[in-house]
Write a structure and sequence with these properties.
41% of the residues lie in helices and 13% in strands. The protein has a seven-stranded parallel sheet with strand order 3-2-1-4-5-6-7, sandwiched between helices. α4 links the parallel β4 and β5. α1 runs parallel beside α2 and α4 packs parallel to α5. The protein is globular, with a radius of gyration of 18 Å.
């Protein structure tokens, strides 16, 4: 099946690399034009490098190589006015907005003394950033539009993101992702009369920079002083019921595609995991 999103336009945050780039490419493969934004700067509390302007340029190249249009801008999801300006410009150029993928996220982790501002940074991006994205998009959306929010299966599990060893930033990440469960359901309810759908996808470990960094490796292999990716990957297998260390970004993108398409036109308010059975293996988080 091809052309499932022909004639539609998608607004994607955190689109410079990782899941966001994968979403942009996958939706473009099915006919969507893309409005892409990313910060393209470092946030000091985040211990791994964030995406760069060059990363965003690569997303642009990949989408254009598929024959689709893309408007890409540097913008901070923490600043609603910035998002509104770039989205308004993108809609003016591409003519409409049908799909919103509120994907941008960070995972600050304590690499020394815990700093309460790490919690602030995490919630500003992972929760407020999603709310800002949705808020600026709603005035552009028509019937049968789709909003997809990125949550986290890890935040549903006990003793993961709320592990004190990971510090206030991880707690902020987990609290934000948990809060998005209720936010998704509320927005789905209040937008239902306009036939606008809102759903939340909850990935397990994904093969991106958020997983592959020294802080995460240390959490999975605390027995080693300087664990490497090769040291950590066998431990990643423990997280899922299926014997895999992580899923690929496209595994999440395929669900985003389905939720964005008319095939899911009456699916709303749902929490859908792509987690290889991790919540079944480690139950105890929110339903």
């Amino acid at each position: 099946m091809t052309g499932r999103l022909e004639g539609k336009v998608a607004f994607i945050t955190g689109a410079a690399r990782g899941q966001g780039r994968s979403h942009a490419v996958r939706l473009a493969e099915e006919g969507a034009d893309i409005i892409a934004v990313d910060l393209c700067e470092q946030i000091e509390s985040n211990p791994y490098p964030l995406a760069t302007a060059e990363d965003l340029e690569e997303t642009v190249r990949l989408v254009k190589d598929l024959g689709r249009n893309i408007v890409a801008s540097k913008a901070d999801v923490r600043e609603r006015d910035q998002l509104r300006d770039v989205l308004d410009a993108g809609v003016a150029e591409l003519g409409r907005l049908d799909i919103v993928v509120a994907n941008a996220g960070i995972l600050p982790m304590a690499m020394g003394d815990p700093d309460p501002l790490d919690f602030v940074d995490a919630t500003d991006v992972d929760l407020v950033g999603v709310m800002n994205t949705v808020a600026v998009a709603i005035p552009h959306l028509q019937a049968y539009a789709s909003i997809v929010v990125t949550g986290s299966t890890a935040a549903m599990l006990p003793n993961t993101t709320d592990n004190p060893a990971m510090g206030p930033g991880s707690a902020g990440y987990g609290w934000s992702k948990k809060t998005l469960i209720g936010y998704t359901e509320q927005m789905a309810l209040h937008l239902a009369s306009q036939l606008i759908r809102v759903n939340c996808v909850h990935p397990t470990n994904v093969n991106t920079h958020l997983l592959h960094n020294d802080g995460i490796y240390q959490q999975f292999r605390p027995d080693l002083e300087h664990p490497t990716r090769e040291d950590a990957e066998p431990a990643f297998n423990m997280f899922q019921a299926m014997p895999i260390p992580y899923v690929e970004p496209v595994d999440i993108s395929n669900l985003v595609l389905f939720l964005a398409s008319d095939e899911a036109r009456y699916i709303t308010g749902q929490q859908i995991r792509v987690d290889a059975g991790s919540l079944l293996k480690f139950p105890g988080g929110p339903a």
